[in-house]
Write a structure and sequence with these properties.
365 residues, alpha/beta, OB fold (Dihydrolipoamide Acetyltransferase, E2P), Rossmann fold, Ribonucleotide Reductase Protein R1, domain 1, 3 domains, six-stranded mixed β-sheet, five-stranded mixed β-barrel, 9 helices, 32% helix
Length: 365
């Protein structure tokens, strides 16, 4: 049976309604991308779940994958397919994507510099990290940098406390690496600490779960939903690595309110964006840098360097500073490659426009 939705349940509010006003006169109606399957999308609407495809115009105008819908997007739809089960050959058409208020992206795997959108329109990003042998503070810093870059609010979920003998010590390490970020140690096996998640799961809020394979995301999804909707597997005992139990991004409605986006585990997580998330993720280093004698201080051997002074006095760990420099170099490299790619795409766009003009005049002769 096809379930109908109230848009408010899905995160719709007055701000989205105002953004949608220009589409009403065309007879379009709103929906939210719940899942993606190759070139088709499952969309939640007031009519229920529908299958949708992007319009030819949108696909033709798209210069890169990020110009097409992603899970979490609000879109303008044309065509009233009442049920995707009864009308499998009658896809509705996605005519436009509403402006995204947040976007969690990473660099696509491989040598490309292309952007891969993980999820959009997120209010809170739950960064799930297991407190077992796979615990890694440097990885947490990397996830935090991407989370701050996205525009969403990051919360660190430290899972599997029942499998850790030194929870307080590891929480302390994370606090040093994530100043000002909420940290929630939990165990879905015992229920310990899970109640602290409740304030983030109210109606109108969208949460995304991100983390490495085996971190416990699928187990947490099942716990929050109160039923086993995601497969879970035991992790390898020797290194705590898990299998990808979630294979695609998908929206879930939480019984206590709110929308949850589950994502596949990430074995490769590379930065993408302007690098602005670094100043948020490493705000302590940014604060020290602001006290350097010279505004262009490189924090190496310059006189009056407040960063090096903080390291010497034990206020800032050498490991954290090295992690910051590594991510900074990576962000600059991605920025250079992205700018080059943008130039090539702009050239490609004008080449396409020129070709259209030529074809137009040839048909008029």
């Amino acid at each position: 049976m096809n379930c109908q939705y109230e848009l408010k349940e899905l995160g719709w509010n007055d701000a989205w309604q105002e953004l949608f006003q220009p589409y009403l006169k065309s007879g379009f109606y709103p929906g939210r991308i719940a899942a993606e399957y190759r070139d088709r999308f499952k969309v939640w609407t007031e009519l229920g779940e529908v299958w949708a495809v992007v319009s030819g115009k949108m696909r033709y105008a798209a210069l890169e994958r990020s110009d097409l819908p992603a899970v979490g997007d609000w879109v303008a739809l044309e065509g009233r397919a009442e049920s995707m089960m009864d009308h499998e050959d009658q896809d509705v058409i996605i005519q436009s994507i509403l402006p995204r208020k947040s976007k969690f992206s990473r660099k696509a795997a491989g040598k490309t510099s292309a952007e891969q959108i993980v999820a959009t329109n997120i209010d809170t990003v739950f960064l799930v990290n297991a407190l077992n042998f796979d615990f890694n503070v440097r990885r947490i810093e990397r996830y935090l940098t991407l989370a701050w870059e996205s525009g969403a609010h990051p919360v660190l979920i430290l899972s599997k406390t029942d499998l850790c003998d030194d929870v307080e010590e590891k929480v302390g390490q994370v606090q040093d690496a994530a100043p000002g970020v909420d940290i929630l140690p939990i165990s879905c096996a015992t229920g310990d600490g899970v109640s602290a998640i409740a304030p983030y799961t109210r109606q109108g809020q969208t949460i995304a779960l991100l983390g490495s394979s085996g971190a416990g995301k699928s187990t947490l999804v099942n716990y929050l939903l109160g039923q086993n909707v995601q497969l879970t597997y035991e992790v390898r005992e020797k290194d705590s690595r898990g299998r990808h139990t979630t294979t695609s991004r998908e929206l879930f409605l939480l019984p206590q309110g709110g929308v949850l986006i589950d994502t596949p585990g990430m074995r490769e997580i590379q930065l993408f964006g302007s690098g602005e998330g670094l100043s948020e993720a490493f705000e302590d280093i940014a604060a020290y840098a602001g006290n350097c004698r010279f505004s262009d201080c490189q924090h190496e051997s310059e006189p009056g360097c407040a960063v090096q002074k903080a390291i010497a006095e034990g206020m800032l760990s050498e490991e954290r500073y090295e992690s910051y420099k590594k991510l900074q170099r990576e962000a600059r490299y991605i920025s250079r490659k992205t700018n080059l790619q943008e130039q090539l795409e702009e050239k490609k766009k004008w080449k396409k426009i020129t070709q259209q003009i030529k074809e137009h005049y040839q048909t008029k002769r």
